[in-house]
Amino acid sequence: MSRTVAHLFVDALEELGVRHVFGVVGDALNPLTDAIRASASLSWVGCRHEEAAAFAAGAQSQLTDTLGVCMGTVGPGSVHLLNGLYDAAKSGTPVLAIAGQVPRPEIGTDYFQEVDNDLLFKDVAAFRATVTSPEQLPALLEVAVRTAVGRRGVAVLTIPGDIGDQELPTDRPLRLSVARCENRPDDPALDEAARLINEGGNVTLLVGRGSRTSRNDVLALADRLAAPMVLTLKAKEGFEGDNPFQVGQTGLIGNPAAAHAMDHADTLVLLGTDFPYRDWYPEGKKVIQVDRVAEHIGRRVPVDVALAADVGPTVRGLLERVAARGDRKHLDSAREKFTHWQDGQRRLAAPGHDKGLIGKVRSALDNRDHLVRPEALAAAVDAAAADDAVFTSDTGMATVWLSRFVEMRGSRRLVGSYNLGSMANAMPQAIGAQFLDRDRQTIAFCGDGGLSMLLGDLMTIHTERLPIKLVVFDNRRLSMVKLEQEQAGLPEFGTVLDNPDFAAVAQALGIKGIRVEHAEDLAEAVERTFAEPGPVLLDVLTNPDEIAVPAKPTVQQGWGFAIAKVRENLHSTGS
Question: Which has the closest alpha carbon to 36: 53, 18, 49?
């Protein structure tokens, strides 16, 4: 029997080892979803929103380092994919999106639901094309797949409604192989980098996601150079656990030890990171940057030696050239400050923190209702979670608490919208992650604003019986925006959320719901959450006035916060 366009797509996805396609069914996609229905190894996951489908596909891609796949049908269905696809593109992970289109004779006539997909996806997609005849396949599909995988980005193929069930004119086999290779800098470039390191003083490593497959090499370099290792958020996974060199994160979610390690270095070595915040790079340092993407180098901070290559072979080349450091004062100082900071964070998360004299003063000022401290919630989940758990986190304060109180020890994994910074990502990314392994603990750190934005896909969790644990930081606020306003001296405005009882909502949708309103109930609720075999939504009322102090708070921020509080109090008293 001759193959159709739809069957070619399914054959390709099966050959690539894709197991799930996420989307919402409809018109132009019907031939493709019917072919998926008949597949023995490929499963269709019907989501309630295409944005959730794209986030789920992107999460699978990030966790497996293979192609993720999502679909959106004609017009609005394809438009809804955009945000999740932007997240995949900004995360540098390969995703293939199949978008529906009106029938070919109607293209260009402003037909019902018609959207110019090639224009729509122009910015987000490394490759995009509309299939206008079966003769274009399988070559067009092969180019789309190779572009997504080779350039680690998004490819979009648009399928008009009258194409999917068309027979292919030839039976040419698919050729989808993509050979990956590691790039190593030339010897003169490595020599120059090693000279800069050997002649300089203190060295600090800023380590990003691009280093995760080279952990042992990077640890060896840190040891050789007695260099503290500052981690980006994406490098928590792979470098945080059992690492005597790491000093946590820098930036707004960072800590004083990481800032100290950066400020007191003479030479900064950036390994596989495009850390975007220029204000957090110290001035007057020698900088070496290693990144396989050449255009990433030097766009955040001026670079003295640029090594456009993979981290592993580059670091191995440096290890052959750099001299061992006997003086470990720079490393020891940063690690001592990091340990001191960690001790302080643990005190914040301790159950009795608000019971002392200082705690009583704090309670009177900012926790009148004795709500749960978000630090305590994050720490409790960290203690209860398995060492191979997969974590996802919503953008905002949920990510701050995860970054500070959840350790990526063992084989834990971490996914979030850490480049795009979208809301509402944690729950759908957890859906994608849980489908990869139903027996692996998957935990979503959800902000109340993020969860409510794509609340409908709780039904996907229920329908598919996914045992995800949804931990909701329910402070009735868009709390990161609140903090931004107050640091700028502005009174809080537009951030208050009129939330439902999320646990009751979950119960109504067939998911176990647990609600915590008082700190003394937290430990038992977390224990119940992780003892439950199926999905659970843990709705915890957390203190909305709890703030995360940045690594280097400024006087301006302090004054801004004070002024904002005065203005808020004046408003609340009607003055």
Answer: 18
Is residue 350 within a helix (H) or strand (E), and if so which, with residue range?
none
Angstrom distance (rounded) from CA 38 to CA 51: 25
Distance CA 566, CA 551 (A): 24
What tokens does 172 get? Answer: 């040419």
Cβ 427 vs Cβ 454: under 8 Å:
yes
Percent of the chain with pLDDT over 70: 92
What distance in Å separates the CA atoms of residue 220 and residue 357, rounded to the nearest whole number? 46
Task: Determine the Cα–Cα distance for residues 373 and 448; give it in Å rounded to an integer.
Answer: 15
In whole angstroms, give the CA distance from residue 461 to residue 393.
17
283-338, pLDDT tens digit by residue?
Answer: 999 999 999 999 999 999 999 999 999 999 999 999 999 999 999 999 999 999 99
CA separation, residue 216 to residues 211, 295, 312, 408 (Å):
10, 26, 9, 16
Closest to 102 in 3D by CA, of 36, 163, 25:
163
Q: Give how far Cα 238 sits from Cα of 67, 94, 212, 290, Å.
A: 21, 21, 6, 18
pLDDT-derived band at 145, boundaries 50, 70, 90: very high
Q: How far apart are CA 146 and CA 296, in angstroms?
A: 22
pLDDT of residue 436: 98
Render 453-469 in DSSP notation, one character per residue: HTGGGHHHHHHTT---E
pLDDT tens across 303-316, in order?
999 999 999 999 99
β-sheet with 95-101: strand ranges across: 43-46, 20-23, 68-72, 95-101, 154-160, 125-130
Written as one string, the DSSP assignment of 215-265 is HHHHHHHHHHHT--EEE-GGGHHHHSTT-TTB----STT--HHHHHHHHT-
List helix spans (H) across 385-521.
Answer: 397-405, 426-436, 448-453, 458-463, 479-487, 502-508
**For 197, what's the count of Cα atoms within 13 Å in the CB-facing half-sphere?**
30
- Residue 357: predicted pLDDT: 40
- Type of residue at 75: G
Measured between alpha carbons, how far is 334 from 340 in angstroms, rounded to an integer?
Answer: 10
* Torsion angle defined by CA atoms of residues 101, 104, 108 and 110, in that order, rounded to the nearest 10 degrees: -60
207 neighbors 215 (Cβ within 8 angstroms): no
pLDDT of the residue at 360: 45
Q: Which amino acid is at 101?
A: Q
d(CA 12, CA 210): 28
Transcribe 165-209 into DSSP letters. TPBPS--PPP------------HHHHHHHHHHHHHSS-EEEEE-G
Instruction: Write the CB contacts of 89 (distance below 8 Å, at least 6 apart in sequence).
Output: 124, 125, 126, 153, 154
Q: Which residue has the tokens 């039976």?
A: 171
The DSSP-derived string for 508-539 is HTTSEEEEE-SGGGHHHHHHHHHH-SS-EEEE
Cis upstream peptide for 428 (omega within 30°): no
Q: Would the CA dihedral through 525, 499, 475, 259 be positive or negative?
A: positive
What is the residue type of 26? G
Let me know: does 64 contact 436? Beta carbons within 8 Å.
yes
